[in-house]
Amino acid sequence: MTTDAKQIQDAFDDDLWAYIAEIFSGNDWALLWFKQLQKVVGFWDKIADCDVDKVDAQQLNDFFEILLIHWVYNPFYQQNKIVLTPVIVNSISAWKASNGVNPKFKAYDITTEVACTMCMIIGGIPMINKHMPKLREMCWRACQLDDVTDNGKR
């Protein structure tokens, strides 16, 4: 990825995370869990894409700590894991099916569909209607930007 493309990607990622923080403001445990989920699937994606040169020992350590320690004690996840788990499983299935084929956008289900479910848990349909159209549009832009900046690979 060129320096200019990386700067564009980083700026967009900052905007996306700022919006996600806005969506889940007031629910720190939910925001923390969602950030950890994205970190875990980002790491998993590097392994699945054989981008092992982009993986370091700290990322590996973080991956296992999140799964084995942090989620065990996160009250948002503990209270809602029965609802969240099927959405995560479906999102992972969509991601696997989208690798290398269309619709590549389905790889972003782990962001959009999990966030939508979290909105339903926290604030119901009004929260979904308020935030999900913009988040879906931002994820679509992220998908397109990913293709331009890194040929579909991060």
In short:
With about 150 residues, this protein is mainly alpha-helical. The chain is built from five helices and no strands.
Tell me what the structure shows:
With 154 residues, the chain is mostly helical. It has one domain (3-150). Helices cover 81% and strands 0% of the residues. The protein has five helices and no strands. The protein has helices spanning 3-23, 28-48, 57-73, 75-98, 109-150. Helix 4 packs across helix 5.
Structure characteristics:
single chain, 154 residues, globular
> Radius of gyration, Cα only, in angstroms?
15 Å
Report the β-strand fraction as a percent range: under 5%
**What is the terminal separation in angstroms?**
9 Å
* H/I helix tally: 5
Following the backbone from N to C, one meets helices and strands in this order, namely HHHHH
Average pLDDT number: 81
Shape: globular
Number of domains: 1
Q: Low-confidence parts lasting 5 or more residues at pLDDT below 50?
A: none
How many distinct beta strands? 0
Protein structure class? mainly alpha
| Largest sheet features | none
The amount of helix comes to: over 70%
Describe how the helices and strands are arranged:
Elements: H1 3-23, H2 28-48, H3 57-73, H4 75-98, H5 109-150
